[in-house]
Request: fold
Amino acid sequence: MRVTRTFVDLPLQAGVSVQLPDDAIAHLGRVLRLRPGDTCVLFNGDGNDYTATLAEIGKKAGTAVIESAQVRTNESPLRITLIQGIARGDKMDWILQKATELGVAQIVPVHSQRGEVKLDGERARKRHEHWRQVVISACEQSGRATVPTVAPPCDLISMPIDAPLRLLLEPTAGTDLRTLKLQDAAVAIAIGPEGGWSERDLSQLEAAGFSGLRLGPRILRTETAGIAAIAALQAHFGDF
Reply:
């Protein structure tokens, strides 16, 4: 039986009663039609699932009693950071959703010279919050209790990356997955936007320590490349 899991941005602890936020009330009450006394599973990104009993659930108020905590053990030993050139509309949502399902640890949306989407100010803030909700929904569906970090949109020269191994896909690169060596459990993979990386972008990536990885002889679309790379890295070095 599939368990429906609901994210709440609250401290959770067994034996504690919590006031549910509005989005959780809407999901549990109006969508799932749960009633007082029903059981649900909550998570807040700390790596645990929390079994809870609804004490109250109405249109504007909801209370749950946390009964127990269960540690989730489905996080990959490979910490993958996806550097993603910002794609248009639903493509970006799809990339974030599938990357989360595949176990990525961090997503860094980046502006690039050929990118068609330019975000700043309030528009950037709203899009960032939307992307975070996409990732949370993917965690709810896929059973992850640790929510990947989604960085605010940034330029290539200001990317927040701590992975020592930094890769970008290049069909003519001398390194492929058979010859790639990992000295650490953290790796970053950079994927260009629809128009690809410009020479300026490539120079900035090279200066930041990125080197080429040959995933295959064909050029992949931006919505395909990152997902294929994450799946391949997981298969060779992660938990697939």
Observations:
- The longest strand covers residues 48-57.
- The CA atoms of residues 36 and 57 lie 6 Å apart.
- Residues 121-142 form the longest helix (22 residues).
- The radius of gyration is 20 Å.
